[in-house]
Amino acid sequence: MKTRAAVAVAPETDLEIQELNLDEPRPDELRVKMIASGVCHTDAIIRDQWYPVPQPVVLGHEGAGIVQEVGSAVSGFEVGDKVVIGPSFCSACKQCLSGHPMYCEIFYERNFGVQRGDGSTAFSTEDGESVGSHFFGQSSFAEYTNVPAHGAVKVPEDAPLELLGPLGCGIMTGSGAVLNVLKPKPGSSIIIFGTGAVGMAGMLAAKAAGASTIIMVDIVPERLEFARELGATHTVNSKETDPVEAVKEITGGGAEYALDTTGVPQVFSQMTKSLGVRGHGALVGAAKLGTEAPFDIGTLLVSGITITLVIEGDAVPKEFIPRLIALHQDGRFPFDRLTKTYPFAEINRAFADSAAGTTLKPIITF
Ligand code: NAD
Ligand code: ZN
């Protein structure tokens, strides 16, 4: 069949909306009619080749849509099911089998390889040139796409698909790092660096978990103001104030938990220093391959802190995404406040607004 899709053709260049051929779904796949897709910072860094993902490629990895066709070997899905699509994993390696599919031993190939295991891609041009597909098991910047069924998460019939796509990556990353990894105790303190969609999702999750001191750090005053509106108890503009000194003063010695969503080496360093004794910090922000961050061994050894590097919130999407939907329905996880929708034709404006910091979580609607 034919489908319109946004194709990444070169670094720092607008995506091109093209009409492509979409092949038949494989026995283990679903064909999904996309209703909406979030735009994540990771789409932008892959378009810009921070990681060497072959182009042309259809990006997009926060898709939500309706099942149109079910592969012959798939069970548990029917035509018409509403789905949110999460990353792809093998289901067979030690990490997958021990409940950590986001650390699947072939996670990189599955999600950044932009082809199936057999080397085929789902998309091709009129001239028969293949176009990368299966980005994060979905390539959701397309009206129709084929996805491995194991990554799809069925959601309730009345679920608002136009809102839910970001639960498959950005929102799952921030909230999962907090709820699945840091697990802040009620009444505890947490400092979060970066108030983008990932940091804000972490903040909403910390609030839902009952943390009572939530310190948000950024360099954009409007974002800090919005963080306060959504529940931050303290904000620090790290261009003006040293966040390490600020957190020590606010918490009387250092935070119990910390989250770095920036991927900036200096911020990682600040995060390690902002923790109190035996505190636990998590890094989710991405950086170019080879980026190193300073860590003060001499001073920090005695602090006994734990640092965890977290992919996709260390979630099991089929278990975690329905929980986030339930929390949202309860009014305890208002991530809809972070989103703004754009028609498919304006996808490059969505990328630009995200980069400029004026939109936290753009969602493309088809
Ligand atoms: P974003 O760009 O919207 O947010 C980043 C925020 O960090 C911005 O508000 C920015 O102003 C702030 N910032 C930048 N430099 C800073 C500094 N020196 N001090 C304080 N704040 C600073 O991005 P996002 O969508 O929230 O994503 C955050 C990061 O998470 C990205 O790097 C993204 O690629 C990554 N990510 C990782 C995973 C994962 O599985 N680990 C998944 C999704 C996204
Ligand atoms: Zn993402």
TrEMBL record:
Required cofactor(s): Zn(2+)
Coiled-coil annotated residue ranges, if any:
none
Q: Which InterPro entries match?
A: ADH-like_C, ADH-like_N, ADH_Zn_CS, ER, GroES-like_sf, NAD(P)-bd_dom_sf
Check the record and name the CDD domains matching this protein.
Answer: benzyl_alcohol_DH
Q: Does the keyword Metal-binding apply?
A: yes
**Residue ranges of every copy of the Enoyl reductase (ER) domain listed in the record:** 12-364
Q: Which GO terms describe its molecular function?
A: aryl-alcohol dehydrogenase (NAD+) activity
Task: Give the Pfam families listed for this entry.
Answer: ADH_N, ADH_zinc_N
Q: Cite the entry's keywords alphabetically.
A: Metal-binding, Oxidoreductase, Zinc
**Family of this protein:** Belongs to the zinc-containing alcohol dehydrogenase family.
What is the organism of origin for this protein?
Nesterenkonia lutea
Under Enzyme Commission nomenclature, its number is 1.1.1.90
Q: What is the protein's name according to its record?
A: Aryl-alcohol dehydrogenase
Q: Which residues form the signal peptide?
A: none
Gene3D superfamilies registered for this protein in UniProt: Medium-chain alcohol dehydrogenases, catalytic domain (3.90.180.10), NAD(P)-binding Rossmann-like Domain (3.40.50.720)
